[in-house]
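#onboarding

Welcome to the new folks! Below is a worked example of what a typical request in this channel looks like: someone posts a single protein sequence, and someone else replies with the predicted structure as tokens. Don't worry about understanding the tokens yet, we'll cover that in week two.

Example request:
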Amino acid sequence: MQPTIIGLDIAKSVFQVHGVDAEGRTVIVRKLRRSQVEPFFAKLAPCTVALEACASAHHWARRIGGLGHDARLISPQHVKAYVRRNKTDAADAAGLCEAASRPHMRFVPVKPPGRQAVLSMHKARALLVNQRVRLTNALRAHLAEYGLIAPQGRKGFAELRDRVEHGKLDMPAPLVRALKAQLQPLDALEIAVAAIEAEILTWHRQSQDSRRLAEVPGIGPLTASALTAALVDPAAFRCARDFAASLGLTPRIDATAGKARLGPISKRGDPYLRRLLVGGAHAVLHSDRAKADPWIARLLAEKPRAKVAAALANKIARTAWVILARGEPYRPGRLVA
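Example response:
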């Protein structure tokens, strides 16, 4: 019997296959080594292949899709409900089969290699920036133990760095040498971050969609390129509100007995995109545009700044979806759906 739906639990070396026919009967249960995956699917008639949207999932979805199959990625949180009993590779593959058969299931669009490369560059940059922050914070903490502090920001850190490099410190010599050694990786990190940002900026300038997004207040080249690369299929969302909700920028709802309570934002979805959008919203709130916009001015008069930033980030995300979904340029003052 030929399977109509196959659940493929992927891993580094051992892959688990579970296939069912049109009537839901199990017809395939087997393990595959990594080298056996493509030959196995090449012999099968076209069918739906479900994979968890995890590490290497986009790669395998592209390879299996290239063999004529309908490769679909499902978020792990949606698969969990269909995994029976203990969590094993076989149970996960069977759960993928069951989840893929549900008519209401939401699938993750498969990213092309080019867009996935842009997102990988963003993650590489974020990792390097995080390492830079950790080094600078550690240096500040060491110097604070000896009564040496400086204002926040790069200008304040430059003052501390100058004192360390020129020996203007009243502390043991071994510690000074250790602090100087801690400063050395910072130069390499600065160069690496700048190189990655240059690559991202080059891609941004070559992408028409990304350039259109950059016209929205609160969206710069980094945010525009990340949104363009991440939102492969805008039609996967019914409307702009659904896209904002997928990023965790809508209130968490606790409803029972007909009563609904709205809490803080849900913080679901991609935390990196959400952080970029909220950071851009804060930048808008600190600009002259915030005073000129009646909507922002009214919210600032009634709500804490952090809540206003979350609301503005929601609005920015919805505007971005409209631009990408409809191919329209940014039009200030237009309400989004």
